[in-house]
Amino acid sequence: PEWAEPITWVTAEKIRKAARLFAEIKPSMMEWGCAIEHTPACFQTVRALLCLPSITGNIDQPGSWSFGMLPLPPFPQLFDKMPMDQQKKRLGYDDFKVLSGELAQLPSAHIPTIFNAIRTGEPYPVRTGFIFGNNALSTYGDVKTVFETLMALDYLVVAELYMTPTAEIADLILPVSTWAEVDALPAVPFYGQNVIMAQQKTFQYAECKQDEDIMVEICRRLGTEHGQESPQEVYDSMLRSTLDFGWEELKQMGFYEPEFKWQKYKENGFGTPTRKIELYSTRLQELGYDPLPYYEEPPESPYSTPELAHEFPLILITGARLPMFFQSEYRQLPKLRKGRPEPECELHPETAADLGVVTGDWVSIETKRGKCRQKVKLFEGIDPRVVHV
């Protein structure tokens, strides 16, 4: 605790108190958002958090951490239909084995590696981009680099609900359906415990299409061996693979929820090579990673780059919830935008006084990558060393 105190700004006494509260109160549960996943140490941080319920016995018990009972197989993925030599070309395969390589359950290319390949052509050129419902110019860090990267593509396609900044720079925009315009099967891989039929509530407008229909059409035009089935055919196949009914029957039922079972590990153990909860990961060790969680300071912080902290003395945070918005969503809706028509940054009154600014002043928030202008809003609940945008 004493080691962590200057890094976390939380006293050693409070750290001990929090640890004892979690360990002694049964059952205990822990939740976290995406903020801890936005640093290079995100993987090890989550691993450390997962160790806590394991060593305190708060695993798959009522009121504690539960393991889902997904009654369906995961949605089909085309990656496992590709030859292994092609799969190994996935950008990030060798360097990010858990996300992109052999340990990935739902493999994804590593986005920064993709961006680097677009700009440099290494390890091979990337000339075309296809973005579904992702406003990269508003949600990714270092927006100047993101913009330059997307503009370097020969052709960019964006499938979107709204004309976002990212859609504005696309060569082709495909209008997509909202969730209310389609039938869907919300069953989350490796997590859920039920199958819900999300029934279409309204007609699809104009030329909009469901995301999956767009993907199917691409597969058909490319003449791929797999991926040409309609979404409804895929749903039916998933249901019938493990249950005694299909898509049409589920539409009549509305949802399916099996009886939930606790302590499932008593039957088959855990999904590790040892069938135990592994605080010391044997699989990660095999892949050359540290088998135990470790701490890594962010690459830019008062402790890793004190000279940078001297030039830019405030810690910038983003993402605190606003009741009228959700992250970057809904800001384009006029009625909701009335709640915050202009961008605001939150400062502690003491910090504002030191800077000579008051509520309503326009100020520039600057990092070494760029700057933006926002209006000052005073908030006593924020740490004086922090600015929230």
From TrEMBL:
Keywords: Iron, Iron-sulfur, Metal-binding, Molybdenum, Oxidoreductase. Residues 314-387 form the Molybdopterin dinucleotide-binding domain. The keyword Transferase does not apply. CDD domains: MopB_CT_Acetylene-hydratase. Transmembrane segments: none annotated. SUPFAM superfamilies: ADC-like (SSF50692), Formate dehydrogenase/DMSO reductase, domains 1-3 (SSF53706). It holds the Pfam family Molybdopterin. Gene3D superfamilies: 2.40.40.20, 3.40.50.740, Dimethylsulfoxide Reductase, domain 2. The keyword Metal-binding applies. InterPro entries: Asp_de-COase-like_dom_sf, MopB_CT_Acetylene-hydratase, MoPterin_dinucl-bd_dom, Mopterin_OxRdtase, Mopterin_OxRdtase_prok_CS, Prok_Mopterin_Oxidored. GO terms for molecular function: acetylene hydratase activity; iron-sulfur cluster binding; metal ion binding; molybdopterin cofactor binding; oxidoreductase activity. Belongs to the prokaryotic molybdopterin-containing oxidoreductase family. This is Molybdopterin oxidoreductase domain-containing protein. It comes from marine metagenome.
